């Protein structure tokens, strides 16, 4: 398999409390398992992917150390394994959110909510098709020294 592509990342501080991060990825992945029929897109790898994330520092609301964030992830369509029937896996857009709090000069706590709408989607096919990750909630603490 061979691949080449482009990835663009932009991070901008829009004002004192709002930061935006955007990402776009183009991947041209080809497989050589085609028995002389050309080189189709490799299975499980979408050509296009993108994300947009907004991060809000809530200190203007009177809560020092609180950050609220939300964002969208786009996963473009892909093909299943080229050796099989070449089904197209449709694209999906997922919504995530996070909230974090700076507890002290050493400790942070963060709650991540992935796939808020719990949309069912197929993440990819490679002979078999696989459901995408279900909604998840993750709590983490971080210690800095």
TrEMBL record:
Pfam assignment, any one: TonB_dep_Rec_b-barrel
Main location: membrane
UniProt keyword annotations, A-Z: Cell outer membrane, Ion transport, Iron, Iron transport, Membrane, Signal, TonB box, Transmembrane, Transmembrane beta strand, Transport
Gene3D superfamilies linked to this entry: TonB-dependent receptor, beta-barrel domain
Domain TonB-dependent receptor-like beta-barrel span(s) in chain numbering: 3-114
Record's keyword annotation contains Transport: yes
Superkingdom of the organism of origin: Bacteria
InterPro entries on file: Beta-barrel_TonB (IPR000531), Beta-barrel_TonB_sf (IPR036942), TonB-dep_rcpt-like (IPR039426)
Membrane topology: Multi-pass membrane protein
Keyword NADP among UniProt keywords: no
Annotated localization: Cell outer membrane
PANTHER family given in the database record: FERRICHROME IRON RECEPTOR-RELATED, FERRICHROME OUTER MEMBRANE TRANSPORTER_PHAGE RECEPTOR
Family the UniProt entry places it in: Belongs to the TonB-dependent receptor family.
Protein's name according to its UniProt entry: TonB-dependent receptor-like beta-barrel domain-containing protein
Organism: Agarivorans gilvus
The organism's taxonomic lineage, starting at the top: Bacteria, Pseudomonadati, Pseudomonadota, Gammaproteobacteria, Alteromonadales
């Amino acid at each position: 398999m061979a691949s080449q592509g482009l990835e663009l990342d932009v991070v901008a501080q829009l004002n004192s409390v709002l930061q935006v991060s955007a990402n776009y990825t183009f991947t041209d992945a080809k497989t050589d398992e085609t028995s002389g029929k050309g080189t189709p897109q490799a299975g499980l790898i979408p050509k296009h992917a993108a994300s947009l994330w907004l991060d809000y520092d809530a200190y203007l609301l009177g809560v020092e150390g609180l950050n609220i964030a939300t964002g969208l992830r786009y996963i473009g369509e892909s093909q299943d394994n080229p050796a099989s029937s070449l089904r197209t896996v449709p694209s999906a857009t997922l919504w995530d959110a996070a909230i974090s709090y700076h507890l002290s000069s050493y400790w942070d706590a963060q709650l991540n909510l992935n796939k808020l709408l719990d949309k069912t989607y197929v993440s990819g096919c490679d002979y078999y098709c696989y459901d995408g990750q279900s909604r998840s909630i993750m709590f983490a603490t971080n210690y800095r020294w």
